[in-house]
Amino acid sequence: VSASEAQVAEPTRTSPARPPAGYPFAFPRYRNYVLFGATSFFMLIGVVVLLFGIAALGRGPEAWEGYLASLGSPLGLLLTVVVLVNTLYFAVRFGWVGRKIAGARLMGFPVAPPVPLEVHGLLLPGGFAFVWLLVVLVLGGVMP
Amino acid sequence: LNAIHKLEPVFWLLFGGGGFVAAFFLPGFLIGVGLLAPLGLMESGLGYDRVLSLATSPVGRVFLISMLSLILWHCAHHMRHVIMDLGGASTAALAAYLSYGSALVGTLVTFGLVLSL
After folding, report:
1. Which of B42, B79, B89 has its CB closest to that of A40?
2. CA distance B43 to B60
């Protein structure tokens, strides 16, 4: 048996994966990473709340009014604010991280961003905020 | 878990797409439906007849199903990794089946609710 055949027969031993020291809350980088992941739990709640709205819409005008009234209760408003804060944190960080995504390529070579990375990082969150405004205007009946 | 690992590119695509959809649209819906409407600031826009007509138009149905389903898959993939990060490798199978199973059920519920309007 040659040395290379022996290597194939016996897989490389690796130590089990383990979290880095101080994970998950000892350092801001770790903490932000975990908080960013945790936002998905709150966004899931937001989707479920909207699904309840669609279900109420299917049951008729009274159910729809009841749905809006339940959202207007103190508990409903608190839930919406908590979900919204988490969703906003997610969106801003998602956009900010997005500035590091490789941009266009020209003849196989990456093209430098046309503006500094800090400005580049504000473009996506700015675009998100513009669409939030459009959605509110459409839902509010200001736009068709 | 092998099947899950083979489908990883699909889950990643749904995760990325859902992230963009969530970042673009979810805050607007939360502000409009969850905050402004209960405060009485959206009466002309979120009346029953108008909302029903928006939600049952072909574009409205496709939009609602796409938006809500993609966000569900995004959340599932993100939560799977949070569970694995905090719970360790022993939670990998449970996290995967729980997260993606919930997203699948949620997607079917979304289709059912929107198409039954």
Report:
1. B79
2. 20
| Sign of the torsion formed by the C-alpha atoms of A22, A25, A29 and A33 | positive
Separation CA B67–CA B114 (nearest Å): 12
Residue of B nearest to A60 (CA): B48
CB distance B68–A142 less than 8 Å? no
pLDDT, tens digit, for every residue of B10-41?
999 999 999 999 999 999 999 999 999 988 88
Instruction: Say if B115 is an interface residue toward chain A (CB within 8 Å).
Output: no
Residue keyed to tokens 């513009």: A130
Is B62 near chain A, with CB under 8 Å? Answer: no
Q: What is the DSSP letter of A104?
A: -
Q: What share of chain B is helix, strand, coil (3-state, %, to 5)?
A: 85, 0, 15
Residue burial A9-42, b: 16+ Cβ < 10 Å; e: rest: eeeeeeeeeeeeeebbeeeeebeebebbbbbbeb
pTM as predicted: 0.87
